[in-house]
């Protein structure tokens, strides 16, 4: 596609439910990143993929968070047993390779009630 | 660990005013430095970057110079326009720390009024 696509754009869920967020990177981009943007907190790194492997997952805040990437393309970020503090905008970005220019998606606004 | 500190907003300026948004950093290695911009309703996009000391990144009338001695990368524009209203993020990438992640500042919201 023309850009990084994320779905859904908005997700409202109840505390304790699981959610899945999807990212379709730009075709041919081998590097993929997930970030979280909370109000007043800037962008927080979650995980980095190179191809299908994740050499840096140091930013995942707890074991309720996991992510996978298949076929060197689509990535899914899963949050289990959501908590209110998980409410944020989850951003995906891709690049041709590590240390190349990042292209960001528009994000998924997650609200946990 | 690595960190980026940028001036807190919001910043409100009149059209054609001079803009400075301060950014300082701490890093383990020799980082690359970036400014990203997020226009209302849009995703983040790279505005400019610099990869070594004394490099000047520039784009759309914005400039920032990589100052290693002061660990700074301040964003400047001589004459802002209403269309520059956005949130600006300073960021660094420190491969010397063994990671390709970007570390971002908290963002500075700029509003330009006619």
What's the gist of this structure?
With 113 residues, chain A is mainly β. Chain A has no helices and eleven strands.
| Average of the residue pLDDT scores of chain A | 93
Estimated share of beta-strand residues of chain B: over 45%
Number of helices of chain A: 0
Compute the separation of the termini of chain B in Å.
41 Å
Q: How do the SSEs of chain B run, as a string of H and E?
A: EEEEEEEEEEEE
Taken in chain order, the helices and strands of chain A follow as EEEEEEEEEEE
Textual characterization of the structure:
The complex is a heterodimer of chains A (113) and B (114). With 113 residues, chain A is mainly beta. Chain A has strands spanning 5-7, 10-13, 19-24, 31-38, 42-50, 53-56, 65-69, 75-79, 88-95, 103-104, 108-112. Chain B is mainly β. Chain B has no helices and 12 strands. Chain B has strands at residues 3-6, 11-14, 19-21, 23-26, 32-38, 45-50, 56-59, 62-65, 75-77, 86-93, 102-104, 108-113. In chain B, strands 2, 5, 6, 10, 11 and 12 form a 6-stranded mixed beta sheet that branches. Classes of the chains: A mainly beta (113), B mainly beta (114).
């Amino acid at each position: 596609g023309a850009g990084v696509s994320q779905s859904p754009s908005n997700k409202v869920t109840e505390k304790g439910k699981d959610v899945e967020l999807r990212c379709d990177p730009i075709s041919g981009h081998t590097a993929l990143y997930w970030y979280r943007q909370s109000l007043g907190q800037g962008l927080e790194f979650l995980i980095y993929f190179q191809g299908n492997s994740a050499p840096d997952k140091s930013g995942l805040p707890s074991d309720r968070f996991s992510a996978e990437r298949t076929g060197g393309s689509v990535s899914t970020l899963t949050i289990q047993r959501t908590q209110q503090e998980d409410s944020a905008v989850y951003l995906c970005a891709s690049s041709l390779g590590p240390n190349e220019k990042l292209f960001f998606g528009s994000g998924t606004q997650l609200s946990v009630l | 660990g690595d960190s980026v500190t940028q001036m807190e907003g919001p910043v409100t300026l009149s059209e054609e005013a001079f803009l400075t948004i301060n950014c300082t950093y701490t890093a383990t290695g020799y980082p690359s430095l970036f400014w990203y911009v997020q226009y209302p309703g849009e995703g983040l996009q790279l505005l400019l970057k610099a990869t070594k000391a004394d490099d000047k990144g520039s784009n759309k009338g914005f400039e920032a110079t990589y100052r290693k001695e002061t660990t700074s990368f301040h964003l400047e524009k001589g004459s802002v326009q209403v269309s520059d209203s956005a949130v600006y993020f300073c960021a660094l990438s420190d491969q010397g720390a063994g990671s390709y992640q970007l570390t971002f500042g908290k963002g500075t919201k700029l509003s330009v009024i006619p």
